[in-house]
């Protein structure tokens, strides 16, 4: 990390053009100025609410749909083309289509949802499919109730799939969500700030906001995964 | 406890190869019945059909409806993420920790209740699987080579504990070992025909 920061600093000194490559020191200084502004925090809160909201909505939907698809083949057959379409269609197409149909205010929620849903769905489905058949037979013979089966047999085996899906999806949701905000420019969002920085060729702002996105995305990821792990541990305890 | 279980003309083939052929038997309630046959002789298939895990190609089984089942499978089939006590309580949450600990101690697993079964040796896992089956609420118990992998001393101890817990109850024991049928006090030994004889 220190090495790459040093490379960045040296490169900016060599180029010596803030417009093209601003130094990390400059970015940190600008970030220091931004944190004192009210709009800085409200922009983060708005984007977090929209992108995080879309992510959480997709997690719940992905788990429910994945479980239904694992249980009912017809549901899986019905969802397969839909998931394939959502995975294959470029994010930009979704963004433009959504902008034509809805206001830009909740665009990031929709885009974050669409990007995350197939990742969670596919992994949860694969996780459920990978559950040890012998344990399921054991549960059937002993007539272990469904709630206990889910808690003690399914959960520990599906959890690694779910966590890895969340790790991938969290990064994607922020990338796509902010991209949607940049195009849709909803008022008081990180995307709007990035767009403003681009319009005014304000490279320090652009990079400062990029650092913010990385930090918020990382923080959200760590917090979410820690909460899930903690909840799972509590559930698995007997 | 239920009445006699009647197995009538049971047939099962896998990929065209017959495993069970026209097998009929009466399994008396409240007693241990042993099933003996060489490897590949259809013992496990018979148990799986009786447990409802495998459909028979033809034939019928009566007397099992409504009976609570318990089983020791050929594999331990334990939840590796759970402790020995949790594995047992998974099938019978009404057991108190003291009851579970006492039962574990009876088969030589003192102070192991809270230990994850993933840290157990093969013999310890086997004993946990046996205890899980014995402590579950059951009307009929299926034992598929239950004492496989236990050293002679432990095996004697576990067989004695199993017999004590199975007295007067309906048990179907699949084994290669005549000594096990005697140790559990089997009232009858059903012999499945050898595969060669069926072909």
Tally of contiguous helical segments of chain A? 10
Helix/strand order of chain B, N-terminal first = EEEHEEHHHEHEHEH
Distance between the termini of chain A: 42 Å
Round the mean pLDDT of chain A to the nearest integer and report it.
91
CATH class annotation of chain A: Mainly Alpha
Annotated CATH topology of chain B: Rossmann fold
Beta content of chain A: under 5%
> Gyration radius of chain B, to the nearest Å?
17 Å
Spatial strand sequence of the major β-sheet of chain B: 5-6-7-3-8
**Helical residue percent of chain B?**
25-40%
Counted up, domains of chain B total 1
Q: Could you give the count of β-strands of chain B?
A: 8
Q: Name the helicity range of chain A.
A: over 70%
CATH architecture of chain B: 3-Layer(aba) Sandwich
Span between termini of chain B:
38 Å
Could you write a compact summary of the structure shown?
By secondary structure, chain A is mainly α.
Structure description:
The complex is a heterodimer of chains A (238) and B (199). In chain A, helix 8 packs parallel to helix 9. Chain A has a single domain (42-236), classed as Orthogonal Bundle (MetI-like fold). Chain A is mostly helical. Chain A is built from ten helices and no strands. Chain B has 199 residues and is an alpha/beta fold. Chain B has one domain: Rossmann fold. Chain B is built from seven helices and eight strands. Chain B has helices at 43-51, 84-91, 97-106, 122-135, 152-166, 178-183, 195-198; strands at residues 5-14, 17-27, 32-36, 58-62, 69-72, 140-144, 170-175, 188-191. In chain B, helix 2 packs parallel to helix 4 (122-135). The longest helix of chain B has 15 residues, at 152-166. Chain A binds chain B through residues 134-135, 137-138, 140-144, 148, 152-153, 156, 236, 238, and chain B through 51-53, 68-71, 73, 75, 77, 79, 81-83, 85-86, 89-91, 93, 136, 142.
